[in-house]
């Protein structure tokens, strides 16, 4: 049977004005993480529908239990990210259109692609999360600690639970489809779609959130976009629209750690990949222990101060 836990969180985003620039020290990471919130809502909605379609095809009771727990965890993530995005829309109403566009992209996947494709999509994307989120969580002092405590706590919770269920999507895929060749074959289209959705979110940020509030061009995370913007700066006749500076979210992180994460992403797409063997962020174990001890993980950095 699965050992995944279903943890219901309330970050009380309705109680205050949630800042778009929630980590003032790293505007690019703030924007990237906000885009993750938008993507998570659409992606996790797709996952829930996908698992409901898949359950009748699963014959192994342990796989069925894993699929159910995976779906329920993802449902909790979607609920929490909806609360976060709702708070941003309250301040920037135009982001409602952005959210609808992002959800629409995943609704189209559900309507227009096969169940096998969506199982592969989920397995491919989820397999990348452990190395990527390890990079982030290993550098929490720079990426999360300086930021708004509730927003930081939302992402820390989500990322450690992604590490917890790191094998779930592949377990379900292998049970129903079981073809590494198919998973690898569709991977390029999967990641094109993921980048398309993130780009939609970032374009919405540029359009609906004033530069004074975001402080950077939200599309700065895309290398090809940065190159085009710099080319247009050198060639004024191209009339580039200036949306702000173009820093990267990980500019200050150790290059060696970034390369390790990149190697992990590549490895995650290879045949016979087993996420259970991945190196895990130390922060995940700390988080799980604190949660079991009753620590208020929705205020990761300030709960002790509030309690005292």
UniProtKB/TrEMBL annotation:
Q: Which UniProt keywords apply?
A: Hydrolase
Organism superkingdom: Bacteria
Q: Which InterPro entries did the record assign?
A: UCP07580
Q: Which GO terms describe its molecular function?
A: hydrolase activity
The protein in question is named Metal-dependent hydrolase
Q: Which organism is it from?
A: Rhodococcus aetherivorans
Please spell out the taxonomic lineage of the organism that makes this protein: Bacteria, Bacillati, Actinomycetota, Actinomycetes, Mycobacteriales
